[in-house]
Amino acid sequence: MTTGATELENLVLSSIVAAEKIGFLSVASATLVFYDYILTFDQEVKYFWTGRWTLSRALFFLNRYLSNSIAIVLSYLMTGFRSCEAATRAIFFMEYVALTIIQGIIVLRIWYMFAERRRIARLLVVSTYLAALVTAATEIGVLVPGIAPIKTPPGMTEHCTAPPIDKLWRIYLPNLILHTVLFAATTWPVIEQRRSTSPLMLRLVRDGGIFYIAVFAASAFTTIASFRSNDLSIILPAMFSNFLLAVSTVSVSRLMFSIRSLASALSMDSIALLSAAELSRVRWRRGAHSGELIVEIDSAEPESEPEDRDGLELGDMFSPPRLPRAAPQIYTTRVGVYHDELLPGYHNVYTDRERNRRTKTRSRAISVTSAWAGIP
User: How far is Cα 95 from Cα 88, in angstroms, rounded to an integer?
Assistant: First the structure.
């Protein structure tokens, strides 16, 4: 009898500590989402409020508002007794929907990066995505109905919590594996074409790497904590604080802003920018000034070659022969100065020297010059 009372007392105390941690981490996650929304609202208006509707644009708004709403609402629901039981179970289903949208954005990004000839790679990525969704949905359907919340004594805490389940890690492990596969698919084109990799591809891989580090850390925290079923203070905050959802939502939003800002700076469509074929054609280099991009576009030259001048005599220098008037040739160079949108974790990855090369202004200038061959 004494042993049973002691175990119950320890369970209640552990639940109280875990509930407090859930509350703190939930508020921190909601604050992260809201703060990021305020910081990036101007970019949302600039890059996504106008233009034609595409699948990527629709997924952006779903992630931007549905995922953010889920993170904030669930953080609020976990603070009351009346809605505690419903929120405990709803958090898994709503988080599943939000993570599905986030992962779909990354899959679509990789789909555009791979050319149509890479059908096997596309099929592998999509198959992994669908397998992860089906596995997670199956585990949620099996495990979540068995979760019954424990209400702590009134006056001690305003939260409720749920007992740990030994197999809860099965819900989060597919997410961790999927993001690893997606990151490998992102870096594969660079590894395959490492000798002639486009700077745009390197930029996209850099952004994808920062995104992967942020999401992988959050996924690893949640997955590893789900194995600690005997420690309520670890497993419960990881499961019910929406930390994984908040980090994933913010990271994928920053990733899409980075793509749109670069496409805008280069006067390109974002889908064309992600195309592997387009990336191999675009040639650009850094200009002499900080943040300056010089994009080289093929000139409209006539197909005929100039006449051979090997027979030029010394006297011709004083009375040069009259050459036929050639068609006008237009050479175009686009110089774009853009502000490199920084993703979460950028300051921890890049050195001060690299960060100093970024500029705070964005402008574009197009110069066109015409040259006529011959002397009138």
Answer: 11
Q: How far is CA 260 from CA 58, 65, 263, 272, 350, in A?
A: 14, 18, 5, 11, 22
Better-scored residue on pLDDT, 161 or 232: 232
241/194 same-domain check: yes
| pLDDT at residue 132 tops 90 | yes
For residue 46, the enclosing domain spans: 1-150+163-278
Statement to judge: residues 253 and 132 lie in one domain: yes
**pLDDT tens by residue, 153-210:** 555 544 555 655 677 788 888 988 998 888 888 888 777 766 665 677 777 778 888 8
Listed residues 219, 244, 278: the one ending a domain: 278
315 belongs to a structural domain: no
Quote the mean pLDDT of the chain: 70
- Residue 282: which residues within 8 A CB-CB, separation 6 or more? 198, 200, 266, 268, 295
Read off the amino acid at residue 374: G
Residue 59 lies in a domain: yes
Residue with more model confidence, 83 or 9: 9
Summarised one tens digit per residue, pLDDT across range 42-91 is 999 988 988 788 888 898 999 888 877 776 676 665 555 455 666 677 77
The pLDDT of 222-226, averaged and rounded, is 85
Count: domains in the chain: 2
**For residue 2, what is the domain's CATH number?**
1.20.1070
What is the DSSP annotation of 9-69?
Answer: HHHHHHHHHHHHHHHHHHHHHHHHHHHHHHHHHHHHHHHHSSS---HHHHHHHIIIIIIHH
CA distance to 25, 221, 297, per residue, from 227 (Å): 19, 10, 55
- Reading the block at residue 339, the tokens are 């502000």
Separation CA 314–CA 308 (nearest Å): 16
**Residue showing tokens 């992994």:** 128
20 located within any domain: yes
